[in-house]
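Session log. Operator J.P. requested a structure for one protein chain; no other inputs attached. Running the standard single-chain path with token output.
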Amino acid sequence: MNISKSVFLLKSTTSKSILDVHSRINVSLAPCCQCLHNQNNKTFSRSRKFSSGYHFSHNKLNGRKFLQPNFFPEQSLKTSFSGIRQHNFPPNGSCFKGKDAYRKQTRNLSVTPKAILDASPKSLQPYLRLIRFDKPIGTWLLYWPCTWSIGLAAAPGHLPDLWLLTLFGAGAFFMRGAGCIVNDMWDRDIDKKVERTKLRPLASGELTYFQGLCCLGGMLSVSLGILLQLNWYSVVLGAASMVLVITYPLAKRVTFWPQAMLGLTFNYGTMLGWAAVTGGIDWTVVLPLYIGSMAWTLSYDTIYAHQDKYDDMLIGVKSTALKFGDKTKHWLTGFGTIMIGGLTLTGVALDQTWPYYAGVSITAAHLAYQLYTVDLNNADDCAAKFRSNTGLGFVMFIGIVTGTLMKTQKNEKDQLDDVK
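Structure written below.
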């Protein structure tokens, strides 16, 4: 059964029928309509537009026929048919067997952050969304610079310290969560005016300011416990980062360079990771790594900021996306060059081997592809390019680890050459 044009499924405000659907589908839906009438159900729980070319099919349930949209991806559309609330049609084409049976069917084993959030108690879900539990990209982007410095600080021929990698992974999760709460507390009124952020728990009123503050206290307490596992030099250095965490959300109010402030904050782990391994900082290694990582953040967060540029213009919030405008790609080219230069200088300072530089080359290729293909006027494409930077961080980490492992072989070869 084909639909010859786009379809709007609209909630009926005057009738308990689906006549609003009839007028937009050039086929007879009498059996389905009768079924829905028998269920005394209002049309749809929300509006949704479907492109032409999709199709419907009829499936039987206990001798009755149901309208089955075969194109719904699982959990993508929140509809309400016959009491089966907050669930879409079965994606595998099976018919309804009741609310509980279908929920059991769709609850397959899944460990994705989104699935964990959905399976959590309703009272806990606002707090998980407050810390962006279902959007782990921020945690990864905070974590990768830490792993880079820990891997670079490892002894030649050795793997990075697994315990430190674990501690920094947990620290990245909790500190990113704390940063999100601080950001939402500062920006509660601003978030209400931005389409992408207006449903955040504090902006929407789902959580109160006090509840957000309590959650922040818990996240910071756990973060402090993790920090205290490190040497005292690292403890002092890590505690100093709180100034950046608290003040970063204010940058967008006073400067067009809030992404630079984010770069200072998000890449603080390059210093902290090195200090955790060595007990100090070698600036000939850490400084170019820190600057290169900051340039990386400026690149991906400028792309990210292009999602909200129209809302930002309306409410007066500043960003590099607005600062650069049509010249954004020129600036991104510069940031990419600085990043690759910083990583190269770090490798030279540490006498790294070819796998490290292979990682740098792949990173450069990724940045070039991202720059060439990104559509800065397409919010979905900007979000996709932003998320792709997680893979970049992983590739660079693998290059660092394998490069450090091979340093022993290189040193032995150099010693043999010296003897000869």
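Operator note: The longest helix spans residues 162-186.
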